[in-house]
Prior knowledge:
The chain has 64 residues and is an all-alpha fold. Helix content is 16%, strand content 0%.
Amino acid sequence: MGIEKNGGPGPNFTHGMELHGKYVQIGEGVHGSLAKQLIARFKLDEGRRPQKFGIGLKELGCPN
């Protein structure tokens, strides 16, 4: 955050985060741009048949 148009840090510049964990859960759409980058970078689909569908949940309220 805080990168100026010229690519340099601006007055609101903040360093990025670095996550360290055994497991990381990414929550975005079924075929989100971040998920696609992670799958390609870490070859998460190598030797696998990735799913081609998504499951959605919706909470429904009951009228009183």
